[in-house]
Amino acid sequence: MGGVARRDVVRAAVLGAGSAALAACGSPLDPRGAGADGEVALTVATNAVSGGKNADEADWITRWVVPRFERRKRAEGTPVRVRFAPSGVDDEQYKTKLALDLKAHAGPDVMALDGIWVGEFAQARYIRPLREVAGERAVDWAGWAQIDPKVRSLARFEGKLYGIPAGTDARLLFFHRPLFRRAGLPADWQPRSWAEVLAAARRLKRLDGVTPLQINAGTAMGEATTMQGVLPLLTGAGGRISDGERWYGDTRELRAVLGFYRDVYGAGLGDPRLQQEAKGRDKSFERFATGRLGILAEGDYFWRDVIAPKTGTAPMKGRDDEVGYALFPARAPGAGLGGRDHVSLSGGAVHVLNPHTRHPRKAFALLAALHSAAALRARLGDSAMITERDDVNDAVLDRDPMLRFAADKALPVTTFRPGLAAYPAVSLALQEATAAVVAGRSPAAAAAAYRSALKEVLDGDDRIIG
Amino acid sequence: MSTPAHGSALRADQDRAAAPHEAPGGASEGRRAVLRLLRGVGAYVLVALVLAFFALPLLWLAAAPFDRNPGITASLPEFTLRNFERLWHSTDAVHSLASSLVLAVGSAVLVVGCSALAAYALSRVRIRGRDGILYALLLLSSIVTGTAAMVPVFLLAAGLNLVDSYLGVILVLTGGLLPAAIFILKDFMDTTPRSYEESARVFGASPLRVLKDVVVPVVRPGLATVGVWTVAQVWGNFLIPFLLLRSPDKSPAAVVMYTFYTEGGQPDLALISTFSLLYSLPVVLMFLFVSRRYGFRFHGGIKG
Amino acid sequence: MATTASSAEPAPPDGTPPGGPPEQDAAGLGRRGAALFVVPALVLVALFLVLPAVWTLYLGSTDYRLTGIPAVDPSFVGTDNLTRALGDSGFLRSLWLTLLFVLGSAVIGQAGLGFALAWWMRERTGWLKTTLEALVMLAWILPSSVVAFLWIAFLDRDGGTLNALLHTPGAAWLLDHPMLSIVVYNIWRGTAFSMMLYSAALGNVPASHLETARLAGANGWQLLRDVVLPCVRGHVLTNLLLISLWTFNDFTPFLITAGGPDGASEILPVHIYKTALGNGELGYGAALSFLMLLINLVVAVIYLRLLGRGRRARRRPAADVPAPRGPGAGDAPGRPDDPGEATA
After folding, report:
1. pLDDT tens, A450-461?
2. According to CATH, what is the number of the domain A24-169+347-416?
3. How far is C-alpha C148 from the chain's CA centre?
């Protein structure tokens, strides 16, 4: 490559069209070349790696999905070789790598994105609506009938579907039943308002060595603060974070949320140190598992993966009896967004196709293979989680009453985060607002500071409401 | 800690330095002896503290991998080798160490070779603005090794067809490490004596030969230092190999180290501590080897 | 004898290292030869360092992002990013913390402890020296991700090793003293380099000078100030320049405190990482990198000024020391071992 070409690369990339110049260059970047004997090669990537992060997902893809898919294609006379590209790193790092690959018009044919990245990837033209990439077969796919419209919205941006959602989850309040018993609280606790949550926490506070309530706050908890704390509370107060491209600033609802934080941390109902520690979230899990934390706001994966009796990272042998769960209450009955009594928050991954895949038809077949009922059942084995498919959920969720509860009660009242590029910075500003309140600032001052942080993030006032 | 404090604790030169001025008289003699003793004890207490300071944080690495249920705390392990077994079976940990080795050795050879040539030339021939340029490069290297440069670095590698190749990682890392390596090497090439070079030249040796046969032996400990420094830098670097490599079997240990987390981002301490130990061993062995073989000085003096 | 070559030629009093002026072309390289020697490094540096660095600096004048609309269509914003940074309290705080971090851990900590260790070790052998040296080096060569875990384990508030030793259960070092923690960590991490550099430098101080000064009745401090420092001035400068730059760019504290609590240990590399990778604001992140470069430049100029003045001030006392009588005068007893041979 001569100097001219390189200068073109520089100029093009700087001007934002670097991908076009690069597309001409890269075969090593592009692992999608033909395999031996002209057989088609496909790559699938998720943030999972055998023996590490999300190991069972990686093992499922390499040992179940891929061999069956390859066998079927061979039988059909169109052999395909599928390679799994594992990652298993921080989500931001995984996202960066995918974005760079897609920018260079390379990367895997099928890949998993976090649902909230769909919008920013679409805006950057890294991904395209499924129908444009795979054609009508994507619309006609039989599986859609099994996927709830609400779950489908994970993969939707500006009215268009960009991929197939890969399961979802819900946020709930988990509580430690033995501690509740000692505090004289009911074992089937189901709070109907924030006041009832605070009242239970006050009772728990009388127990020695027990942190009553863990509502994540501060920047050290990262996205867990926004997802498990601010946003469920905000929807519970009837508020929203954004409307289309515009973001809500210093609103009454936000002040109410921050007021709740003040009530929790100002009155010693939560441990403010835990919110500051780099490993604070792990510690909150450990405390809950060892009976030193009363109420914990977490996603259902806490139940599935953290305190699972055998496989958890903080296993609780008596989980099924000792751990209770309840819906997040609205601030007061009927005060939640859209007049809801209870709220939840959901996320989940989405599998999308690379818009530059050389084999869109086969890539879609692989995508569909990842979402067949049989594949999902194989993925779960005898465990359970909320998948994207109703038929699978009907069969597997009865194995676990907690997940049945989450799917039946929490999903109908749940909301999703907006998938816009500004979201991570907005989320950080929300985390900083909670940190300020935990550190003793007034909710009004913290909300005002959030408003000015928002102005900086969005570069002006014109995309801020309130 | 107190017994070795006599005499040997004090350096002989201090005794000697004091000798010509010593006033006659027992009292003064006695006070000096006490003072000397105190200073000796003090020096050893300080050394002991420093020793503890450097040793204590390392305890976890020695204990946790052998613990049945390792926590974040260093404690006497409930001894087991199960963690090693698990690591051996469940990951391509061993493979990743081989990748790290390729990257580290490749970069070290390139960095040491290029920087020795350049440092020697810069040291012996006057070039206007040389030091300024060198420092400017050093400053730029701080940008390239930071996160903000990742898009240019990636697009550059992509443009040169260097993505998913060891060579790409090696070249990018070498580019970032060279200025500091030249900076270090030039500094002490400046201070090595010229007389041997001159005599070698009188016998008609070419500059390359002079460098190889006369200069390199003199600066060998310095080259070793730069080599070890390069290996340590590459061994620990996560961002560049992560961005530039794609095939899982090429992932170096620094990248694999980051994968021992669960869905919720919790570290798997058993795997992490065990892998940490395996991951650290090669650099430790290299250090021991190099320091035995070449010494660890910037100038060790001329041998033989 | 190892040092004969250098101690035979007494160093000029202004501290120019022995061996004559550096520009002396002893090998007969010539300009063309020198250029050939420099070419491999030059090509690599131009292509893989200068090009991406300049490119990054250019990105710093745009609103470029990794994702979202500006990823396709970034616009040129000129110096907006720089003015935004200078008005951003988060950046300014992070800058202040970085300066504290560099001053505390590198300039005072690493350089100070490194020099002390080098001084203590310079004429010593034996297991104590070997052990100490090995431990200090170990701290330097272990991979940062491993080291980060070691320090988390060491400082953890629920029964970390330090709390167990001090009998201070529950003391949250990383929360109550985050900056102190990462400063101490970085001293631990980086002292080896200064130690090695100063060991080398001290080995270069002509033994005859030391001997003469001792005979003239100089005490330890005077010896350091008047004989040793003038000889190692260049090394001090190199050392400070390098460790300051490295400390400025050190990202490992992120792995220990994640910049927390609430940004109390968010030094610049961490701030830039969060901006560029966390928020995806690559243009702004690049502008911050550029500011960091400028600050490093200022720091370097300060070092040059300080050490330059130091040379003039110290010229006189050093010249007062009587000229050495010859290489044999005090060489043998003062140098029981040669460092190069001791480790061989």
Report:
1. 999 999 888 888
2. 3.40.190.10
3. 19
